[in-house]
């Protein structure tokens, strides 16, 4: 087979067969296909797209390009959740214990944060002693014992995707629906999931700013998952403002604990319950979402989800006492208000800018080697639809250094106001099976 023939076919809008796609993935991984040909191929896909069968073949070949987690020693249906990334998204910390309390095994590989979105691993490391570098044997044993474990991503998971994603990043070919869908799904398949619930975000803090693009991405991922025999569904949710009220690692952990205690903010509570209900359905514990919701809500009321959180944190060496005593989590030394320069209803918020402001306080990484400060972050005291008087706080910065005026300005500028009353935004736009 020759790479030039594969590029030509795709450039001319023809479909590639499974053999051709696998040949490309193998040859590119081995270094037999140079970056310039892979770039031309990615650009041809960007313009001509891929059929569902082509995207599924690309996903499967990339999933098989490196290590694959074998979770067959874990009993039950392993349901994974994936979010396309957002600001203040701490749902994994909530719905993990919610579904584990229903005896659905949660075996999750998670990443660290980069740029304006945070990573679950960073949040969990706000618990003193929490270990995320665990080998496969211990991971399986932890899930079998506690029904929940979260590990950092293995070094050799989907190397073909890693190489192709890095190339796409510098060749203006990231924003292709079949390439994003196969990239995300290859990692889910290699992580051993039997079923997958996707949270596809749309809005100012999301990868897909427009709802129609988010829908196309969700449909592409659901099609790929189902055609590879993984029960897959997606929820399209709003990321026009951060989820919940807190952005920053220990602050988000505290908010997740409050949600498990039944005292979380409405948007975070509702999205977590919705995703967990779908996980209960795919995990075989409920026949439909309403039934799943009833089961999941019960785990909050009877505190079994909170107990599950403690068991999970302890199992991975973390200080589980912090679940009941959140003052044991890192606290920042300085808190200061960001006051509003205008009066009116909050009509919009640039979620990505809030994420960047939190990063500048030290809560996130600009480059992958940056060290993060778990204590710092932002508390939003106003969200879309709330009324604010000039001089009233919009947010509180939790910082460990004094020079925060530029961050305060960034936060202020992230807000938009209206004199007219503004409705609370829709949280969940659609559900796709
Ligand atoms: N996230 C991924 O994992 N892959 C993409 O292609 C885009 C976002």
TrEMBL record:
The reply on keyword Transferase is yes
Q: What residue stretches are annotated with the Pyrimidine nucleoside phosphorylase C-terminal domain?
A: 345-418
The record lists the membrane-crossing segments as none
Q: Which SMART domains match?
A: PYNP_C
Claim: Glycosyltransferase is one of the keywords in the record: yes
Q: Which UniProt keywords apply?
A: Glycosyltransferase, Transferase
> What's one GO-annotated cellular component?
cytosol
Q: Which reaction does it catalyse?
A: thymidine + phosphate = 2-deoxy-alpha-D-ribose 1-phosphate + thymine; 2'-deoxyuridine + phosphate = 2-deoxy-alpha-D-ribose 1-phosphate + uracil; uridine + phosphate = alpha-D-ribose 1-phosphate + uracil
Q: What are the names of the required cofactors?
A: K(+)
For this entry, list what GO says about its biological process.
Answer: pyrimidine nucleobase metabolic process; pyrimidine nucleoside metabolic process
Q: What is its EC number?
A: 2.4.2.2
Q: Name one GO molecular function term.
A: 1,4-alpha-oligoglucan phosphorylase activity
* InterPro entries, per the entry: Glycosyl_Trfase_fam3, Glycosyl_Trfase_fam3_N_dom, Glycosyl_Trfase_fam3_N_dom_sf, Nuc_phospho_transferase, PYNP-like_C_sf, PYNP_C, Pyrmidine_PPas_bac/euk, Pyrmidine_PPase_CS
**Quaternary structure and interacting proteins, as annotated:** Homodimer.
Q: Which NCBIfam families match?
A: PRK05820.1, PRK06078.1, Y_phosphoryl
What is the role of this chain? Answer: Catalyzes phosphorolysis of the pyrimidine nucleosides uridine, thymidine and 2'-deoxyuridine with the formation of the corresponding pyrimidine base and ribose-1-phosphate.
The UniProt family comment states: Belongs to the thymidine/pyrimidine-nucleoside phosphorylase family.
Q: What is this protein called?
A: Pyrimidine-nucleoside phosphorylase
């Amino acid at each position: 087979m020759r790479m030039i023939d594969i590029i030509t076919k795709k450039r001319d809008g023809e479909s590639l067969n499974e053999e051709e796609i696998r040949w490309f993935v193998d040859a590119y991984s081995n270094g037999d296909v140079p970056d310039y040909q892979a770039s031309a191929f990615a650009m041809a896909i960007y313009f001509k797209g891929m059929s569902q069968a082509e995207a599924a073949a690309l996903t499967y070949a990339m999933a098989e390009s490196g290590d694959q987690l074998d979770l067959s020693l874990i009993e039950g249906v392993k349901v994974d959740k994936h979010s396309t990334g957002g600001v203040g998204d701490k749902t994994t910390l909530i719905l993990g214990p919610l579904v584990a309390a229903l005896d659905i095994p949660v075996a999750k590989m998670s990443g660290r944060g980069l740029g304006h979105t945070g990573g679950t691993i960073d949040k969990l490391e706000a618990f003193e002693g929490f270990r995320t570098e665990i080998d496969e044997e211990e991971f399986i044993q932890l899930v079998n014992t506690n029904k929940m474990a979260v590990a950092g991503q293995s070094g050799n998971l989907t190397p073909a995707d890693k190489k192709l994603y890095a190339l796409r990043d510098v060749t203006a070919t990231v924003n292709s629906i079949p390439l994003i869908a196969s990239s995300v799904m290859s990692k889910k398949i290699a992580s051993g999931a039997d079923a997958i619930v996707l949270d596809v975000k749309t809005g100012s803090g999301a990868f897909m700013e427009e709802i129609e693009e988010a829908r196309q991405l969700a449909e592409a991922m659901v099609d790929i998952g189902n055609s590879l025999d993984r029960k897959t569904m997606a929820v399209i949710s709003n990321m026009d403002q951060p989820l919940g009220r807190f952005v920053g690692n220990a602050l988000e952990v505290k908010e997740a604990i409050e949600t498990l205690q039944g005292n979380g903010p409405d948007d975070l509570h509702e999205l977590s319950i919705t995703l967990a209900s779908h996980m209960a359905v795919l995990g075989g514990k409920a026949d439909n979402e309403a039934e799943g919701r009833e089961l999941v809500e019960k785990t909050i009321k009877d505190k079994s989800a909170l107990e599950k959180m403690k068991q999970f944190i302890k199992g991975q060496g973390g200080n589980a006492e912090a679940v009941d005593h959140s003052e044991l989590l890192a606290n920042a030394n300085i808190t200061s208000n960001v006051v509003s320069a205008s009066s009116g209803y909050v009509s919009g918020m640039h979620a990505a800018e809030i994420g960047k402001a939190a990063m500048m306080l030290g809560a996130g990484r600009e480059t992958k080697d940056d060290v993060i400060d778990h204590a710092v972050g932002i508390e939003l005291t106003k969200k879309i639809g709330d009324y604010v008087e000039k001089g009233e706080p919009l947010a509180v910065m939790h910082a460990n250094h004094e020079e925060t005026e530029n961050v305060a300005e960034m936060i202020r500028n992230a807000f938009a106001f209206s004199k007219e009353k503004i409705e609370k935004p829709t949280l969940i736009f659609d559900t796709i099976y």
